Structures are given as structure tokens and as C-alpha cells.
Amino acid sequence: MKNIHYKKFDLIFTKGMSGDYFDMIDKGGVAIISGKDLHKKHRILAILQKNALFGEMALIDNEVWSAYALALGNCQFSVISPKILNYLIGNRPN
Fold it and tell me: Would you call 26 exposed, middle or buried from its count of C-beta atoms within 10 A (0-12, 13-18, 19+)?
């Protein structure tokens, strides 16, 4: 599995980008943010920490990402590609 790193306040992905992978947080935290509300403030949908998965619905639904992901600190993620996901699904224990 490939690992990627982000620094605090790095934008991990943006709404509308192709969701052809998803991530598991190995270190750090991530804010999932939708667009701005009526008061022009960003809406935080979730704060995710170690071992959380994010971005998976775009891959499963074969769609674009529907929100923004922002690193809340120095982060490390494991990238889960379609190939890895298919392997995990096909080799899960009974």
C-alpha cells in the first residue's frame, strides 16, 4: 500500500475531483468540509482521526468527491486503490 504525507492545512482533495482512490489515516487528523452555508462559512461535516477512512464513497459510487478534505496537522495516509479494495473484499475472512 502506498503512503502519502500532508502538512497542516494542506488541501487533500476538493469537491468535484475524481474519486479514484480513498485514504486511511495513519497519523494526524482530517476535516471533511462541504461548501459554504448561507452565511458564507464553511460547514464541517466530520473531523476524522487515526484509522478512519475517507473519500471512499466516490470510489464505491464511481463519482467525484462531494466535499473538501483538509489536513488538520502533519498527516500520513495509506492510499487504497480499486485494486487493493477488490483484493480486500475478495480475501476477507469468513
Answer: middle
Q: Within 10 A of 30 (CB to CB), how many other CB atoms are there?
A: 23
H helices of 12-66, where?
Answer: 56-61
Characterize 52-85 residue by residue with b for buried, 16 or more Cβ atoms within 10 angstroms of its Cβ, and e for exposed.
eebbeebbeeeeebbbbbbbbeebebbebeeeee
Q: What is the pLDDT of residues 25-73, one digit of tens each?
A: 999 999 999 876 667 777 899 999 999 999 888 777 888 888 999 999 9
Cell of 87: 483484493
What are the structural domains, with CATH classification, of the chain? 2-90 (2.60.120.10)
Residue 94 has pLDDT above 70, yes or no: no
